[in-house]
Known about the structure:
This protein is α/β, with parallel strands linked by helices. It contains 24 helices and 10 strands. The chain folds into 4 domains: 6-174, 3-Layer(aba) Sandwich (Rossmann fold); 180-241, Helicase, Ruva Protein, domain 3, CATH 1.10.8; 246-367, Zinc Finger, Delta Prime, domain 3 (Up-down Bundle); 403-548, DnaA, N-terminal domain (GMP Synthetase, Chain A, domain 3, 2-Layer Sandwich). The longest helix has 20 residues, at 278-297. It binds zinc ion (ZN). Residues 64-66, 72-73, 76, 78-79 line the site of zinc ion.
Amino acid sequence: MAYKALYRTWRPQKFQDIVGQQHITRTLQNALLQGKVAHAYLFCGPRGTGKTTTAKVLAKALNCLEPASGEPCNHCQNCLAVNEGNSVDVVEIDAASNRGIDEIRDLRERVKFTPSTGRRKVYIIDEVHMLTDQAFNALLKTLEEPPGHVVFVLATTEAHKVPVTILSRCQRFDFRRIKPAEMVERLREVAKGAAIEVNEEALWLIAKAAEGGLRDALSILDQGAAFAVDTVTAGDIHSILGTVQQDILQSMVKFLADGKTGEALQLVSKLADLGKDLRLFTREMTTFLRDLLVDSIEGRGTGEQISNDNLFYLLKLLVQAEQDMKWSSQPGLVLELALVKASRPELGGSLEALTQRVAELERQLASGTLPRSRAPEITMPAEPNPTPTPPSPSRTDPTEEKVPVTPVNKTIKEGISPEKTSLHVGGEDVSGVVRQGWPDLMGDIKNGKKPLWILLNETKPSLEAQGNIVTLFFEDDFDVRRADKPEYKKYLEWLLGKHFSGSWEVRCVHAKKPPLSTLKPEEDPVYTEAVRIFGKDLVILENDPSETGGVK
Ligand SMILES: [Zn+2]
C-alpha cells in the first residue's frame, strides 16, 4: 500500500475536528441546520489553515443522507464518495493549474444539470485568484444567476486579487492562522493516532515553524517520523528544517550584546560549515530577538540582561540584513557586516570601516588566530573613539578630516599601568602592547627558563597578538619545532598572564615576517590599528612612532 501523507490521513472529517476556525465552522453548521446555506462562499486565509478541508466537510454535510447537528455522518454512500474523492456531485477545480481554465469555461453549461446522487452540486475552486479574466467572467455569469442546486466554495490565499464583482456575490470567511497551542494539541492527537513518538519540545518547534499552517506542521511531523530513530526530538526537527537550536541563537545574542565580534563571526562560519542556510538563520535570529523584546516589554524575565534599546537595535539591524541578503550575491558577507555593526554600535555607519573590519576578522578566522577561550574581563578600551579629533596644526589640507595617529597611540599607552595591565581582548590586535612589554618578559624568561631565552634571543621571532592569542613567527621551520613545546608554551602563557593579566595562548608558527627591530613606522601596530578602524585616507603619521613609545 502506498504511503499516505499524515495531513491526508488525518484530514478532519467533521466540523468539530477542524482546528482553530470555530468562528467559521459554527456559522456553517448553523446555516446547515437552518437550511440557509449561501450559494457562494469565499474562504480566505493563509495556506494550510483548513480552507479546502472545511469546503469538503461542508460539501459532505450538504449531501449527507444521515446528517446530525449539521455534521456529516461519514459513513453513508455520499459521504464516502467525497472522502474517497470520487463523488460526481463535488467537483474540485484547481485554478492554479491549466486544467482549471478549461473547466471554468464550460462550467456554465455543466452547472445546469442537477446533482446525480446528492441534493447539491458543490464546486470547490482552489486558488481562485489565479483564474484568468476570461475564466472570472464565466464564473461571474454563473454567480449572477446561480441554479438553486449549486454551491460554490472559492478558496484563496490572496483575496485582494479576486475581482470585487466576484467578492460582492460571496459570503466571505477569513481563516486565521492556527495558534501554536492549538496546533500542538492537534499534532499530539495525530502523533498518538499514528503511533509516532515525539517529545513536547519538538511539537512546539514544529508548531512554531509551521507559522499557523496545520498542513505544513503535519508535513514536518511526517518527515520527523521518517527521520528519527525512535522518538522525534527537537534536534531531528532542526535537522529537517535546517534551523538551529535555541542555545545557538542565545549564544549569538550574547556575543552581540557583549561586543564579542570575533566569536559572533566564528559562530556564523561554523554554521556555514555545517551547511546551514544563513538567510534562514538570520530569519530565526529576528524571530528570536523579537520574542526577547516582546517578553522584555511585557515584563517577563528572560535572564538575558539586555536592555530594550539594545534588543531593538539588534533586531533592526538583522531585519535589515535579512532584507539585504535576498538581493545580495554574497548573503554571508551581508550578515557578517550586520553582526559587526550589531556588536560594535560605536562603529555606526562607516561602511568602509566595517568592510575593513570584516576583512580583517575573516583573515583571522582563516588563519585560526581568533581566540577560542573565554575572553578575560574588559577593563581598558583598546580602541579609540572614532569621532574625529579637533584639527591638528600639521594638517595641510583643510578639506580633509584626518585623524592624527598620536592620540590613538596615547589612548592605548595611557591605559597601561606599569604594575598590572589588563588588556582589552576578544579579537583585537594588541600586538603593540605585548611587543612593548616583551623586553620585560624576556628578562623574566632569562631568569626563569634559560634554554627558552637562548632560543628566543637567538632566533628573534616576530610577534603578533590578537585577542588573547600571541603568535610567534619563526623564520626557520626548525626553530618552530624547537620552540613549539608544551613546556615552553605553558611557561610563556603563564608569564603573559603575569604581565598582562588574563589567560593567554601562545602559538609558534613558521613564517617569514620582518623581525621586531626592523619594523618601519607604517608597520607600527598602532598605526595599522588606526588604519584598520578609520581607513588609510583618514590616518596620517604625525611623528616617528619610536619616539612616542611605539615599537622599538
Ligand atoms: Zn453521510
